[in-house]
Design brief:
By secondary structure, this protein is mainly alpha-helical. It folds into 2 domains: 213 residues, Alpha-lytic protease prodomain-like (Up-down Bundle); 100 residues, Cation efflux protein, cytoplasmic domain (Alpha-Beta Plaits). The chain contains 9 helices and 3 strands, in the order αααααααββαβα. The protein has a 3-stranded mixed β-sheet with strand order 1-2-3. The radius of gyration is 26 Å and the shape is elongated. The two termini are 31 Å apart. The N terminus and C terminus are likely disordered.
Length: 327
């Protein structure tokens, strides 16, 4: 006997609230990016700073990921349907991976540009208005990063967290621009610091891209939940009255949520209705108290006296080995 997805009504309300939070934080980020791009472009042109003009273009590129999330959330927040019985949350994982790729591309582009323009000299010393624009960009994008990543963690959205890191990469990339302007204005012979700083910042951005992409790629190939989460799932299921044994726990990620498939052993003398009630109680317990669980499928089996702790330990050890093979 298997219990399928829980009621779609609470899921639909939860999904709509989730989508609203994603849209709100992303729209504000998009507006900030567009305003900053215009201000930095104007300041770069007035202040004769190529670095700040380039940084304005980088800020404009951030809008691409904002648009990708606004489009993507319309699809990944939809409830399951006949064609997609497990929902659409893998779209969020794809968008997260896309943001990681864009971040890595930005880092490589900054590195390449810094190396090939190492010997370039400014035609004229940049003005301090360009320096002010760079500082404004650093402060505003760091504030936007902190707010966005906080929202992303609260609603458990990998795409929003990834986009937050894109905001921080923009703040980091503005640092070399600020150094370039100040250095060229105060010490024209030290303009190379702009290039060195850009390379250092690129490594930080690459590291962020790696941290974003690796979990997302793991989810795309059906990596399971952590060992701690597996132990918690088993303990929660065993805490339900009537459950005598739990084994064959399988997990995979659907977006930022976890889908659980497990076998539950109960007294073989129970009626089908009684067994079904226990199965539903296990599902509710996992959905309410489990680690970000969005779907539960339980399989009922009759308990035998030979099914003891030794079998449970063997099953846990087997699942641990199988989980390690996915890593």
């Amino acid at each position: 006997m298997a219990s399928d997805m829980h009621s779609s009504t609470p899921l639909a309300g939860r999904a709509e609230h989730y989508a609203g939070q994603v849209r709100r934080v992303t729209v504000i980020g998009l507006l900030v990016n567009l305003i900053l791009s215009g201000l930095k472009l104007l300041a770069g042109l007035i202040g004769s700073s190529q670095a700040v003009v380039a940084d304005a273009v980088h800020s404009l590129s951030d809008s691409v990921t904002d648009v990708a999330i606004l489009i993507g959330v319309r699809y990944w927040s939809k409830p399951p349907d006949d064609e997609h019985p497990h929902g659409h949350r893998r779209i969020e994982t794809l968008v997260t991976t896309l943001i990681g790729v864009i971040l890595a591309s930005v880092a490589l582009g900054l590195t390449y540009n810094s190396v090939v323009t190492l010997r370039d000299k400014h035609a004229s010393p940049p003005g301090w208005i360009a320096f002010a624009a760079a500082l404004l960009s650093i402060a505003s994008k760091e504030i936007l990063y902190r707010w966005t990543v906080r929202v992303g963690r609260r609603i458990k959205s990998t795409a929003v967290i990834a986009n937050a890191w894109h905001h921080r990469s923009d703040a980091l990339s503005s640092i070399p621009a600020a150094i370039a302007v100040a250095g060229a204005a105060l010490l024209p012979g030290w303009s190379f610091l702009d290039h060195v700083g850009a390379v250092v910042v690129s490594f930080f951005i690459l590291q962020a891209a790696w941290k974003i992409m690796m979990p997302a790629l793991g989810q795309l190939i059906d990596a399971g939940a952590s060992e701690d989460d597996l132990k918690r799932i088993r303990a929660l299921a065993m805490s339900v009255d009537g459950v005598r044994h739990v084994h064959a726990i399988r997990t995979r990620y659907i977006g930022s949520g976890v889908q659980v498939d497990l076998h539950v052993k109960v007294d073989g003398n129970l009626t089908v209705y009684e067994g079904h009630d226990i199965s539903e109680a296990v599902k509710r317990r996992l959905l309410d108290d489990g680690p970000d669980i969005v779907d539960v499928v339980t399989h009922l089996e009759p308990y035998k006296e030979t099914d003891g702790d030794d079998q449970g330990q063997a099953n846990d050890a087997f699942h641990k080995q199988a989980h390690s093979g996915h890593s």
